[in-house]
């Protein structure tokens, strides 16, 4: 026997063949490339934006705080710890910040503003951006000389058309505006627009000792009264080499400072990152879904391509090419096209990543530096290539088994019953890829496993649905129905049917898109507020007890209703069931968070529930017990987090006086209602004599009345603040519409990829159906009959796949809402039904477009063309 | 050159075995020209597929150039084809995405030979299509496509050439040109030729003619057949 021939061409030939073969079929690979382009564009856009945001936060971390260490408390910072930290600090500033109505005497404009009375050279990091730039020096000079000079946020000046050089009234003092503040380190534009700030010279004695210097400008404003809500802060610049944590940790142990919050650059960075976690998580999910849809698109587009190439492969096999060589030729082609798609996608994604920060401008805490994120681009290109190869391999593997016998018999079918271990291997790799990718996007093993598991289940269910449909139609075939129906239905189970493939690919596409849609609605509804109807729209607070009647009369004079009047007493927790706060703080593993233990509690007293916003969850309403101990009521969720249960004993420190209470009941509270809601409610009969202030809620019919009320307040009760909810809601609405635009914009990529998937799925079936339809036409079927047969087949497939995908999406969205985003889930049925109808219509439309050749051209011409 | 022994091919259809070729045996020497004739469905194309190693027999053996094909994998058979076999098909089977020249180059390139473009160009000139090298199959007439197919079949200097109804898709005039060219090239190269056709006139141009009916060899022009059911060893 002769030796077997062994000469083989090198890799060069494979590349050459891949190139040659692709020349006349590149347009066929367009679907494949567009699936990659869209998936990768979304991925690179979102990841690049995330990178830019994270890097900017990192780079500008010190600027986020303006100092190395910031201590804040609702009481003046007592000086006990000063000697302890003195050697470590290079410089420090203090401030007292509070909300107050401010007035522009020139136009009589009044608005609630954040007043920050400052002492020192804050900020130590970042630039305090003012116009003119010399305004900061002038302000600091005025601080030292106790001159009435203020710096005012741009938003406030713009609203009242005020200019530098005009004056502004803060309490009883009129300040000259020395500069317009464009940006203050540590304050986002969002904060600046919701509560614009007026900076005035402060009182160091007040800030540190709690005793105001009567000659200070702050004291002369007469805005700070007992019970006023003031935030005291100290900003420290540390000596080189001193870490802020070194100072922060011992501070926590000083009893008088237990209510002091310490913030370092690292903690602010973490907090800022966390604030955006929901948004970035969702955007990551969008990228993940877009990419997965891209994967489905790749697999279906390549199956389509492979079908076209079978004849060529058979010839190559006949001429002596091995199965591996044939596979490699097409694998190289798809990899190359995948690379092109990935590069185009990465370029498109880069453009998106450069635009996203602009869309978010004013909402982000930092001005994001929009540089091209090469890591995101690199990741995108590699992912695109990987996806192209991995998902194309699945259909491409069948090339290895194309028999050369097809050159002699076009109808020859390979034996597909033999299991292909390589195919199983590729499935394994795909699962691994999805798992790995989900992990990279979420950085959460459980979530990644959940996503992957969910997808596998969805895949299995859809395959089951497809298989079930075939069996059901066959088993219960309606023999008495018209020919058109019988033919259309029979197409679902006859040899070479596309039922399984189309149900799985269309169903997966619908499933992913609908899940995304449902989540998008969830997240947006979570942040939407309602200010409609007859709800209050003006909140007056910081009203002293002796001012209550006067403010009430002021409102009555203007014909405004007092919709709610609530007394507020501030207090702190000192012990729970006999364990002191200090003891509990040390139990970091099991105890409640330190913040919950040390926070200031603003409580009210009443014996009833707030109608509409509160429900009794357990126990009883607030009530004074027969033993004289008040039974208090707590927010149900808060009680759980504080780890207290009914009948536990809680001792509060009510501005110096200890007060023992028993937890008598819990309430569920709807926090989205515009009402005064309280975590803790006391019964009547205990706190009436305690130092307190009051909040009044009213509704003003228009801006003119609002202006009048605000002016009356500034003149008669300068310490009383008024929050214009309309203004806040409008500002929030602006921000939210920006967020929802970005979310919808990114979701568009998923939808576009989904449509590509749908097109390629349906186009695949063309090769099965065209010949049959032509044959039917040759036998005398009318165009109308062919049209209706196609319609029946695709409408059934589209509808079934869409409904199955939607049901899966509802389950997935519920799971994600419950376990990932922790929000209640109520799906809106109408949009889902519309999506089902749209998918079905689109499937039918593409199916019909696909068959248009058969309908419009003579049968013979098509038979020749297809041959 | 080609030895076929007791070749049988059956398919399973509707749960029962369907035998399309039964106990066929013959042997061909180098340079022989041989045709298989028979009506449609008689099994002649099946026989050609088995001889060329495109398919596996249910039983029996095929030796091609001394290599027994029965136990070879599909890839090993592909290597044998590339080394020793040339093909001509009824529907030409040119690769639609390759130019005429590239189509002729493929068998040479598969062998890893250098200078395939020059050799392919010479072959194109030999079949009278020197100027059409850069045309794609769709830009060529049926006769031209079959001539390209001839050039490709001889490109790897095969020892045996299998032709399946080479004139089946051509008109009479073009057929005559292609057939003349086929025999001319075959003679020049000294290749063994196995031709499947139902055109008796074409079959008569070969040295030997075998008739097949119902999967069984019923006559052979080189030796008398003893009975219709038995096979003939040549």
TrEMBL record, chain B:
A single Gene Ontology CC annotation of this entry is: plasma membrane
* Highest taxon of source: Bacteria
SUPFAM superfamilies in the cross-refs? P-loop containing nucleoside triphosphate hydrolases (SSF52540)
Keyword terms: ATP-binding, Nucleotide-binding, Transport
Care to name a GO molecular-function term for this sequence? ATP hydrolysis activity
Instruction: Report whether ATP-binding shows up as a keyword of the record.
Output: yes
Query: Which Pfam families does this UniProt record tie to the protein?
Result: ABC_tran
Residue ranges constituting the ABC transporter domain according to the UniProt record: 2-233
Family listed = Belongs to the ABC transporter superfamily. Macrolide exporter (TC 3.A.1.122) family.
Protein's name according to its UniProt entry: ABC transporter ATP-binding protein
Organism annotation: Hymenobacter fodinae
Q: What is the lineage of its organism?
A: Bacteria, Pseudomonadati, Bacteroidota, Cytophagia, Cytophagales
């Amino acid at each position: 026997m002769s030796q077997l021939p062994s000469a083989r061409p090198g890799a060069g030939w494979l590349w050459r063949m891949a190139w040659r073969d692709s020349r006349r079929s590149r347009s066929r690979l367009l679907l494949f490339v567009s699936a990659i382009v869209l998936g990768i564009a979304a991925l690179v856009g979102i990841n690049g934006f995330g990178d830019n945001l994270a890097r900017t936060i990192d780079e500008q971390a010190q600027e986020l705080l303006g100092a190395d260490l910031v201590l804040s408390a609702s009481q003046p910072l007592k000086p006990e710890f000063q000697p302890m930290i003195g050697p470590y600090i290079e410089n420090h500033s203090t401030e007292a910040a509070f909300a107050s109505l401010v007035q522009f005497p020139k136009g009589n404009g009044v608005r609630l503003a954040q007043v920050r009375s400052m002492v020192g050279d804050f900020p130590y990091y970042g630039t305090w951006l003012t116009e003119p730039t010399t305004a900061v020096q002038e302000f600091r000079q005025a601080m030292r000389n106790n001159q009435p000079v203020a710096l005012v946020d741009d938003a406030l000046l713009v609203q009242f058309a005020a200019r530098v050089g005009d004056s502004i009234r803060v309490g009883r003092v009129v300040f000259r505006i020395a500069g317009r503040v464009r940006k203050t380190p540590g304050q986002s534009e969002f904060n600046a627009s919701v509560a614009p700030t007026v900076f005035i010279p402060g009182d160091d004695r007040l800030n540190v000792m709690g005793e105001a210097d009567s000659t200070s400008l702050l004291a002369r404003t007469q805005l700070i009264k007992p019970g006023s809500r003031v935030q005291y802060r100290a900003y420290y610049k540390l000596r080189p080499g001193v870490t802020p944590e070194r100072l922060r940790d011992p501070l926590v142990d000083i009893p008088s400072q237990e209510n002091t919050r310490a913030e370092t650059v690292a903690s602010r960075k973490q907090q800022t990152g966390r604030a955006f976690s929901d948004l970035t998580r969702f955007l990551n999910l969008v990228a993940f879904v877009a990419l997965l849809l891209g994967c489905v698109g790749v697999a279906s587009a390549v199956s389509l391509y492979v079908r076209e190439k079978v004849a060529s492969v058979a010839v190559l096999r006949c001429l002596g090419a091995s199965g591996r060589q044939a596979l490699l030729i097409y694998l190289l082609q798809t990899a190359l096209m995948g690379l092109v798609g990935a590069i185009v996608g990465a370029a498109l994604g880069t453009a998106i990543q450069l635009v996203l920060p602009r869309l978010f401008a004013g909402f982000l805490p930092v001005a994001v530096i929009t540089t091209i994120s090469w890591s995101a681009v690199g990741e995108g290109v590699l992912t695109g290539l990987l996806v192209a190869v991995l998902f194309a391999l699945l259909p491409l593997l069948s090339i290895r088994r194309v028999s050369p016998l097809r050159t002699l018999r076009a109808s020859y079918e390979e034996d597909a019953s033999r299991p292909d271990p390589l195919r199983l291997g590729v499935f394994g790799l795909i699962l691994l890829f999805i798992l790995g990718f989900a992990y990279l996007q979420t950085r959460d093993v459980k979530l990644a496993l959940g996503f992957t598991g969910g997808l596998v289940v969805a895949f299995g269910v859809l395959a089951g649905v497809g298989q079930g449909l075939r069996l059901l139609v066959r088993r219960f075939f309606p023999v008495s129905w018209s020919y058109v129906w019988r033919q259309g239905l029979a197409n679902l189970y006859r040899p070479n049917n596309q039922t399984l493939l189309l149900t799985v690919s269309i169903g997966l596409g619908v499933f992913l898109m609908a899940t995304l849609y449902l989540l998008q609605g969830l997240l947006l509804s979570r942040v939407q507020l309602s200010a409609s109807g007859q709800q209050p729209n003006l909140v007056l607070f910081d009203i002293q007890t002796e001012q209550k009647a006067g403010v009430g009369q002021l409102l009555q004079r203007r014909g405004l209703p007092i919709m709610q009047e609530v007394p507020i007493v501030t207090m702190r927790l000192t012990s729970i069931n006999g364990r002191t706060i200090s003891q509990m703080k040390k139990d970091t593993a099991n105890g409640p968070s330190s913040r919950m233990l040390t926070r200031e509690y603003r409580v009210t007293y009443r014996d009833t529930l707030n109608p509409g916003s509160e429900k009794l969850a357990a126990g009883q309403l607030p009530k004074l017990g027969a033993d004289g101990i008040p039974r208090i009521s707590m927010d149900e969720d808060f009680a759980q987090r504080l780890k207290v249960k009914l009948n536990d004993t809680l001792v509060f420190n009510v501005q110096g006086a200890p007060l023992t209470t028993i937890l008598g009941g819990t309430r569920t509270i709807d926090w989205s209602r515009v009402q005064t809601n309280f975590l803790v409610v006391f019964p009547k009969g205990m706190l009436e004599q305690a130092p307190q202030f009051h909040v009044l809620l009213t509704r003003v019919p228009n801006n003119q009345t609002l202006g009048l009320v605000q002016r009356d307040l500034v003149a008669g009760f300068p310490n009383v603040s008024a929050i214009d909810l309309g203004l806040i809601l409008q500002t929030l609405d602006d921000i939210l519409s920006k967020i929802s635009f970005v979310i919808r914009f990114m979701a568009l990529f998923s939808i576009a990829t989904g449509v590509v998937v749908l097109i390629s799925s349906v186009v695949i079936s063309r090769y099965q159906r065209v010949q049959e339809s032509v044959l039917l036409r040759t036998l005398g079927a009318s165009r109308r009959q062919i049209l209706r047969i196609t319609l029946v087949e695709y409408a059934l497939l589209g509808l079934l796949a869409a409904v199955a995908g939607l049901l899966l999406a509802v389950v997935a969205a519920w799971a994600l809402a419950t376990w990932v985003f922790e929000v209640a889930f109520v799906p809106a049925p109408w949009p889902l039904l519309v999506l089902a109808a749209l998918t079905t219509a689109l499937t039918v439309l593409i199916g019909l477009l696909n068959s248009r050749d058969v309908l419009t051209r003579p049968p013979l011409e098509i038979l020749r063309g297809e041959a | 050159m080609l030895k076929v022994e007791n070749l049988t091919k059956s398919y399973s259809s509707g749960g029962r075995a369907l035998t399309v070729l039964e106990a066929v045996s013959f042997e061909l020497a180098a340079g022989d020209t041989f045709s298989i004739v028979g009506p449609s469905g008689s099994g002649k194309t099946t026989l050609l597929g088995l001889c060329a190693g495109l398919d596996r027999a249910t039983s029996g053996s095929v030796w091609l150039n001394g290599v027994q094909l029965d136990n070879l994998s599909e890839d090993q058979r592909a290597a044998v084809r590339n080394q020793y076999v040339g093909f001509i098909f009824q529907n030409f089977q040119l690769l639609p995405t390759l130019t005429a020249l590239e189509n002729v180059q493929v068998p040479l390139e598969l062998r890893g030979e250098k200078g395939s473009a020059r050799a392919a160009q010479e072959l194109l000139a030999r079949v009278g299509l020197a100027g059409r090298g850069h045309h794609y199959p769709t830009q060529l007439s049926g006769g031209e496509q079959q001539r390209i197919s001839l050039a490709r079949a001889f490109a790897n200097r095969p020892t045996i050439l299998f032709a399946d109804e080479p004139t089946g898709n051509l008109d009479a005039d073009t057929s005559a040109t292609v057939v003349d060219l086929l025999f001319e090239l075959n003679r020049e190269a000294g290749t063994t030729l196995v031709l499947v056709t139902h055109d008796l006139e074409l079959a008569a141009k070969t040295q030997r003619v075998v008739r097949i009916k119902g999967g069984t060899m019923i006559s052979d022009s080189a030796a008398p057949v003893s009975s219709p059911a038995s096979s003939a060893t040549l």
